[in-house]
Amino acid sequence: MKRIINLLKENVIFIVILIVMFIVMSFPLPYYIDGPGGLTNIDKRYKIENEYKSKGTINMTYVSEYKATVASFLVAKLNKNLDIYKKTTILPENSNEKEEELRGKIMFEEALDSALIVAYKYSNSDIKINKEKVLVTYIYKKANTNLKVGDQIIKIDDVNVSSLKQLKNILENKKQNKKITLNVINNKKEYKRFAYVDNKKKINILINSNYELSLNPKIKIKYESNEYGSSGGLMNTLSIYNKLTKEDITNGLTISGTGTIDVDGKVGEVDGIKYKLSGAVKKKADIFLVPSNNYKEAIKYKNKNHYKIKIIKVNTFKDALDKLKRE
């Protein structure tokens, strides 16, 4: 014990320097670092009564993103496969981290609901939309309102709001620059908010919908608590559909991809294509499905890095189905 104490005394300066260096290198910075992701086998996330099995897999791609420290910032500076972003460029204008996280959760739920609706309809399975929740996900700087991200709008001037379409119709019938009263639910409590209708019959907020569904056959869903965003919509739809139908659309291949999906089956563009494509290649995926608006970017990075993966451009869910069936 005395020997250890003496050793510590002799090296106290060196130990202090190491501790200080560790603290400094671990200090958080106002930056995010993005890099290549990988694949998530989403077939494992769904369990459907009497589901059909597949020989291949359907996988969601993702971007590896984390907050920067001094150490990781220096590593990213030296690594061409990593990109550094200022915190302010990641967060939308007039927003904060808490709102961004809540917005991402709402969008994730909407994407999952849309995937269920499209997959069940295309497979001729029974589905009923019991309720649509109209949720505030973003408030533009020019909006004159005290609405908050996460508010569920249930009334406008005492008129019930049961869908996004109905909300738009109500606003269309309001006078320009008119103050309106909105009843909302937030964290299970009801509040009254206000907003002003502009000369375009808008209140300058972004709305997303979540749905309450009745499904037959029933489905059990498992996903990670830290997941957010809508970019997995297309792949979730394909996975659910493949379990509901006898024909195996994977043909024994490892299918990867990205893209949003709406209730009409339209596929939308996403961010982080180069990282998602890189992750798919790293995990030896056979196919990478990409929204049409991201196709040129995907091809650019494929050619630049000499990737062997097959990239398929899709516009709609039906488009994705038709092209996979030809593989």
What would your notes on this structure say?
The structure is a single chain. The protein contains 10 helices and 18 strands. It is an alpha+beta fold. The chain has 2 domains: 35-63 and 104-125 and 217-325, Ribosomal Protein S5, domain 2; 130-208, PDZ domain (Pdz3 Domain), CATH 2.30.42.10. It has a 5-stranded mixed β-sheet with strand order 2-4-14-17-18, sandwiched between helices. The longest helix is centred in the middle third of the chain and has 26 residues, at 97-122. It is globular, with a radius of gyration of 24 Å. The mean pLDDT is 87.
Share in β-strands: 25-35%
User: Any low-confidence stretches, pLDDT <50, length ≥5?
Assistant: none
Assembly level = single chain
Main sheet strand line-up: 2-4-14-17-18
- What can be said about the biggest beta sheet? 5 strands, mixed
Shape: globular
Distance between the termini: 70 Å
Computed over alpha carbons, the radius of gyration is: 24 Å
The total of helices stands at 10
